[in-house]
């Protein structure tokens, strides 16, 4: 899979349920868009991710990835304790200086 190291680090931290390592993949001013909500800054991103993990115990398994020009797109099977599980979601990353500057998650 053509996945930049920082994106792989994001999914690795997610699979280990490691909030510290996951938040470390993001730039200080990063933005995450998920389920119609916007989360900006590493503290807000960490809170969003931790709450989602606690609520649904989800697991994201990357299926395919493409990257180039500071962008990475990963399609992942996401399963957990939520209606419709599992789902295939798209994770659209914007990368800057070796960190995740933005992430948008869509169905």
UniProtKB/TrEMBL annotation:
Database matches in InterPro entries: NTF2-like_dom_sf (IPR032710), SnoaL-like (IPR037401)
One Pfam match: SnoaL_2
Domain SnoaL-like: 7-101
Zinc-finger is among the record's keywords: no
Keywords: Isomerase
KW Cell membrane (keyword) present: no
GO terms assigned for molecular function: isomerase activity
Protein name: Ketosteroid isomerase
């Amino acid at each position: 899979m053509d996945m930049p190291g920082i994106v792989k680090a994001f999914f690795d931290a997610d699979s280990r349920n490691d909030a510290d390592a996951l938040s470390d993949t993001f730039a200080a001013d990063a933005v995450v868009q998920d389920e119609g909500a916007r989360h900006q800054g590493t503290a807000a991103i960490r809170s969003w991710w931790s709450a989602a993990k606690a609520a649904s115990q989800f697991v994201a398994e990357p299926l395919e990835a493409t990257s180039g020009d500071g962008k990475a797109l990963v399609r992942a099977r996401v399963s957990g304790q939520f209606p419709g599980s599992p789902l295939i979601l798209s994770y659209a990353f914007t990368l800057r200086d070796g960190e995740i500057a933005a992430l948008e998650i869509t169905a």
